Every structure is written in C-alpha cells, then in structure tokens.
Amino acid sequence: MAHHDDQSYAADPVYAAREPIHPKGVQGRFRRFKNLVLLVAYSVFFLLPWLRWERASGPDQAVMFDIPSRRYYLFDLVIHPQDMFLLAGFLILAAWLLFFVTGLVGRAFCGYFCFQTLWTDTFMKVEALVQGNRNKRMRLEKQPWNAEKIAKKGVTVAIWTAIAFWTGFTFTAYWANAPQLLVDFFTLDAAKAAYITTGILTATTLLAAGFAREQVCIYMCPYARFQSVMFDKQTLLVSYDAARGEGSSGRGALKKGLMTLDERHAEGVGDCIDCQLCVQVCPTGIDIRDGLQLECISCGLCIDACDQIMTKRGWPTGLIRYASEEELETGEKPSLLTFRTIGYGVATLAATSLLLYGILARAPADLSVQQVRQPLFTVLSSGDIQNNYNVKINNKLQRPLDFRLSLEGLPTARVSVVGDFDGLSVPADGSRRFLVHVRAPGDTQVDRREIEFVLTEQNGRIEPLEHDASFVFR
C-alpha cells in the first residue's frame, strides 16, 4: 500500500478558506453610473408591487402574477395561459440582447445590472457605513473577537438580514395583493407558500450578497465560463495598457528621479506607479494588470481608481480603460460594426419586433369547441339528428363582450344554447362555458359533415372568431 506523507496534504489542501475582500471606496464616472443603475433597479423592484392600477376586472395592482386566476398583470397588459408564447419570446430577446451587449462591451451586464452585483454593492455599502473604510474593516477582520467586533459585525449582519428579508417579501408581493399580504404576513394569516418563499429568498440573498459575494461570480455563475466565446479582438473590455504602463523597464513607484513622465520615460519606466489602488477597489480582488481574467466583471471601478491617480499627477488618463485587444496591439480604435455585432444586433431587433407584434396582435378573445362524445349523436323522435358541443369563450379585454353564435357548412342545422341565456355574454377578463345543441334533418346519405362555428361580437368591436368542428349523422 502506498504511503502518503500527511504534510503533503497540509501543504496542498483540497479546499482553501475564502480570504475576505474589502474593496476600497472610489469616486468616478463608472461609480456614479453604478449608483444610478442601483437607484433605478431598486426603485423599480421595491416600489412596483405597491403601485395601484385601475382595471375593469382583476386586481388593482400594477404588476402581479395571479396564480389562482392564471393571469399575469402588467399595467394594461394581461397575459393569459394561452399567451405563454410571449414568455418564450421575451426569453429569446433577453438572450440575444445579452449576446449583443457581451459582444460589444464584455461582461458589462455583470458589472452593472446583475442582481448579484446590485445586492452585493448594497451590502458592501452597509458594511462600510457600520465598520468604516477599507483599512478599518481589515483591522476589524484580523482582531480577536471582542465587544467592538461583535457589535459591529452584529449590526452589519442585522441590517443585511433586514434588507434580505424585505427583498424576499417584495418578491412574494408580486404574487399577491401587496397591502393585504403585508397585513396577513405579520398577523400570521398569510399562506404557507408566502412564508416559505420569503424565508428561502431571505436566506439566499443574505448568503449570496453578504457572505459568498465574489464566490458566486467566480465559481457559481455559468456566464463567467462561456463569456469568452462571445469575445473577439474588437470587443471592448476593461484593459490595462501594458505598453504605456510598463515601458521598456517595467512599472516603478514614485521616487526621486521618477516623479515626472519625462523622467520616467527617460529611464524606460512606464506610467504605472504600482500604487495598487486598482487592486484595492476591485470587488473580486483581481489585478487587472495581469490581463483578461475570468473573475473580472467589467465594473470599471479600476478605471476610476487609475484615472484618479493620473489626474492628481496631471498625467493623461486611460492607462486602464475600456479597450479592445486590437486597439491595444495597433493603437487604433476598431469599428464596433463587425459581422458579429451586426448579427447580434439584427437578431435582437428581430426578437424585439416579433415580441411587440405578438403583444399588439393578440386576439382580444378566443373560441374553443369540443364535441361531446358520449353519445356522439342522438336520433330524435322527429327523425332529426342532434350533436352536442362544449363551447368555451375567453374574453381577454377589460370590458364585457356579448356574442352571437352561428354555424356554417350545414345550412339546414339549428343551433341552440342550453340554459336561459340572453345571448352569449362573457365578463371582462373572464371566460364562460356553454353547452350547445346542433340539430339537422337526418335524411342525408353522408355520415359526417364538416362545419364551422362562427362567434360574432354583437357590437362589432372585434373580428369574428371561427372554429372548425364536424357533425356526425350516423
């Protein structure tokens, strides 16, 4: 049996504990853009469930997934189960849009719009507010557990938990009447699903944004793995200009004889002063000067940090910038209109057009007809043949509709609706089922006749609806 030295396992562990990353705060145009996206995203997510919207029927909530009634309410747009193709269209559009943006500017979605980035950003702001700047947080991390550390860590986690809880509750509020759910939730009258959903999302938000953070982007997110197949030499990526930053003799810190650009260039030293600020502000803890890395989420904060240093020195900015591989090699800015970006752009526009057409061209109502099979036909005492049909009418509009049912393909047939109905009236955003008798003379030599039901709105506000069926004689 082979013998393994225990020390070899200690020297090369299978699992290494996560080293906490404490990004330094920075100001600049990319930080301001991230703050703006954060404000807009949070405003939309947290406020939409509380926005009221007047409808002729259904809930008065502007956006709501109503599972019991199988409706999705989006302002004036009401999505029914038979309109689920719109969901497929939306997912296709989202995929093509992601490919298009990635082909242009790399992982910009990750850096600015991803839920993980948005919530992690907020949690880090809370951490900085409670525990102080980067240096203070690092000292707090290393010091033994005492009253100060317990208090600051406890307050931080408490605020994180409150944000995570409200995130989970807000998501749940999209599936129920938000004001009523708020009351029911805290009086313990809400459905079990509400507590389970809120609890799961609270735990996962707290774990992902508070404790896992960059681990989600590096190890869990599949996008980080296949992003490179959507890059080419013209894709704009957060890049370090090594030719300018390293010079012929490498980078060098500020010191006597290397204080100005002229002095540095005369010694062959590049513009990078090795201040490490680009590393300190990175939320995933990488050094952008090492080139393109899987961990980079293209947030642009290292650009703000480097530009800040260059501006203070009075040197040209852009040592770290959004640049393509081709630009770094040739010094010329490439055209963004490449075959790939044009293809993604055309596909995105096509998906958008088809989705809009699907929304605008939706039928305001639909008709379904099923022939009753037991019995398939009935011979009446008069010699007439009767077939029965279950007719269902769905009204997708926010106003009631009155219909008239007629039959084509069998001129001698008579149509009657079972029950005391004053026309076929269907309420707003509702559906009704009717049992319909169709009678025809039995003196015919055919076994079956193809017919067509025609549903006409009595006020002519929508186009007539048609549905094929068959009439059985024997």
Major sheet characteristics? 5 strands, antiparallel
Number of helices: 17
Shape: elongated
Residue runs with pLDDT of under 50 for 5 or more positions? 1-12
Oligomer kind: single chain
Domain tally = 3
SSE topology sketch:
Layout: H1 6-11, H2 29-47, E1 63-66, E2 71-74, E3 77-79, H3 85-105, H4 108-112, H5 115-131, H6 134-142, H7 147-173, H8 178-186, H9 192-212, H10 214-220, H11 223-226, E4 237-240, H12 242-246, H13 261-266, H14 277-280, H15 301-313, E5 320-323, H16 325-330, H17 339-360, E6 365-371, E7 378-379, E8 385-395, E9 401-408, E10 414-417, E11 424-426, E12 431-440, E13 448-457, E14 465-472
Antiparallel strand pairs: 1-2, 2-3, 4-5, 6-8, 7-8, 8-12, 9-11, 9-13, 10-12, 13-14
Helix pairs in contact: 3-17, 5-7, 5-9, 7-9
Explained architecture:
The chain is of the alpha+beta class and 474 residues long. It folds into three domains: 29-50 and 114-229, no CATH class; 232-330, no CATH class; 365-472, Immunoglobulins (Immunoglobulin-like). The chain is built from 17 helices and 14 strands. Strands 6, 7, 8, 10 and 12 form a five-stranded antiparallel β-sheet that branches. A hairpin with a 7-residue loop joins strand 13 (448-457) and strand 14 (465-472). The longest helix has 27 residues, at 147-173. Mean pLDDT is 87; it is low at 1-12.
